[in-house]
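Retro notes, item 3 of 5
We never archived the inputs for the S-adenosylmethionine complex last cycle. Fixing that now. Sequence and ligand:
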Amino acid sequence: MPIDTSVPHIARVYDYWLGGKDNFAADRAVAEQVIATFPDVVAIARAQRAFLGRVVHYLAAEAGVRQFLDIGTGLPAANNTHEVAQRVAPAARVVYVDNDPIVLAHARALLASSPEGATAYIDADVRDTGTIVAEAAKILDLGQPVAIMLLGVLHCIPDEDAPAGIVAELVDAVAPGGYLAIVHPASDVAADKMKQAMGDYNKEAGAAVTARSHAEVSRFFDGVELVEPGLVQIHRWRPGADNAGQVRELAAYGGLGRKP
Ligand SMILES: C[S@@+](CC[C@H](N)C(=O)[O-])C[C@H]1O[C@@H](n2cnc3c(N)ncnc32)[C@H](O)[C@@H]1O
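Structure as it came back at the time:
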């Protein structure tokens, strides 16, 4: 798929909010428009990245997970999944999945594995679970626990594409003792501003996004057991030194579940 730089794309807009340089004028324009109505979006993007670091560290250091399937990877940024996991466990194996050609173009930075571990990149849509599972099985042992990560990607899947079914198919494909991590923008925190900001984004972007309520995001965890503290605003999930001073009510939920 060619890269159309005239239409804003979520990976590049998010990169702009994180302070990255892999974005174009159309991405920056809508990113600034959203900041104007909803300045907290920058804090949310950074808190999401911090959540990624805490959840991967927890999985590798405390839960003993050595395999990660990170879907909706985004552009390389500080502390990519394999870097966090391999700092704890050099033999960790990480498969990245994204459908954006610009992420594919930057994938080399995601593939710099430790010699003991492995990384791979799959160019696929999260809806194409069959391809993702078949390709991931070339690198990961699906008979051993795998952590599925869906951070900031399910909101790109509208209800008519049955996101809960996609999540269930992925969870079905991993062994008991595997995990499911999700971050999702909230429709029921700062609801009016979120609605306006998402509306502004959707008017400009090629692919629309959907915020969801706590109850709606909770349903994605059907069939897995939520790890403490459950599904909470991302800055409240096992907070650490990185976000100790965070007091704002961020409109994004994060959680981690374990497949029994
Ligand atoms: C907001 S970024 C999140 C990046 C990263 N997971 C994080 O939390 O920092 C969302 C990513 O999901 C990808 N994405 C969006 N829709 C997708 C789809 N249908 N299939 C695969 N990836 C998708 C985008 O290209 C983008 O890279």
